[in-house]
Amino acid sequence: MKKIIIAIDGYSACGKSTTAREVAKELNYKYIDSGAMYRAVTLSFLQRHVALTNPKEVDRALLGIRITFLVNSKGITETYLNGINVEKEIRKMNVSEKVSQVSALRTVRLAMVEQQRKLAKERGVVMDGRDIGTVVFPDAELKIFLTADMLVRAFRRQKELLERDDLVDIDTIISNLQQRDEMDSNRTESPLRKAPDAIGIDTTQISIDEQVDEVIRMALTKMIRPLKPQA
Ligand code: DC
């Protein structure tokens, strides 16, 4: 079967990562969480007190950042920043509060997009993010765009944070999601947009299993090579 690229874009907390991870597992594809890369850059900038308004400082800091992914013993992909596992830390609120500002910077995006393309050189990849179908892989064979109602998104994110022992009240989460929607959609560099050829799925009323099944069904139709016409 043909190896394809599956791009899953959409707003925060619509189930992109969970769907992408499960689809990749089922298809035996590589899963890449592009949001984790922007989060890792943000964590590094916070640790090193990088002034986001100083382009030279940003560029210098970017040179010292190496992001890698490793699959742990439970089969879950985790993010490493310069060889250190930062999977837990990049999900914390202090990173969520700054990540939209960091990911709006042109040089940060250029560096991340270059890495994302390298990671998918051999195709057979499911990547989730904001600009995967529009900028990173405009040629992706399957593009999905996820949406969901704000309250459902906020409760999903709260549950996710709780699973990491981080109790955050629902109003704080809603306000963070709203701010990020606004910044991610209105930035100059690669704003969050549905690609014209992306298939929209509203996940408000459907379960993760249903989402995953739907995407796999669509992927399989793209993976089957078209038969050569008979002579
Ligand atoms: O998917 P996430 O919520 O973990 O992403 C964190 C932030 O990173 C999000 O607010 C916007 C940014 N992002 C981006 O600009 N482009 C991507 N491809 C993925 C994430």
Keywords:
231 residues, alpha/beta, Rossmann fold, binds 2'-deoxycytidine-5'-monophosphate
Strand segment tally: 8
* Order of strands, widest sheet: 2-6-1-7-8
Structural class: alpha/beta
> At the first level of CATH, what is the class?
Alpha Beta
Kindly estimate the percentage of residues that lie in beta strands according to DSSP. 15-25%
Helices and strands, in order, run as: EHEHHEEEHHEHEHHEH
CATH homologous superfamily grouping:
P-loop containing nucleotide triphosphate hydrolases
Q: What is the overall silhouette?
A: globular
* Main sheet record: 5 strands, parallel
Shape-level CATH architecture: 3-Layer(aba) Sandwich
**From the alpha-carbon coordinates, what is the Rg to the nearest angstrom?**
18 Å
Mean pLDDT, as a whole number?
94
Q: Hetero groups bound?
A: 2'-deoxycytidine-5'-monophosphate
Count of helices?
9
Distance between the termini: 22 Å
Low-confidence stretches: none
Number of domains: 1
CATH topology: Rossmann fold
Description:
This protein is of the alpha/beta class and 231 residues long. It has helices at 16-27, 34-47, 55-63, 93-103, 106-119, 132-136, 150-163, 170-186, 208-223, and strands at 5-10, 30-33, 67-71, 77-81, 84-85, 125-129, 142-147, 199-202. It has one domain (5-221): Rossmann fold (3-Layer(aba) Sandwich), CATH 3.40.50. It has a five-stranded parallel beta sheet with strand order 2-6-1-7-8. Strand 3 and strand 4 (77-81) form a beta hairpin. The chain is globular. 2'-deoxycytidine-5'-monophosphate (DC) is lined by residues 12, 34-35, 38-39, 99-100, 103, 129-132, 180, 184.
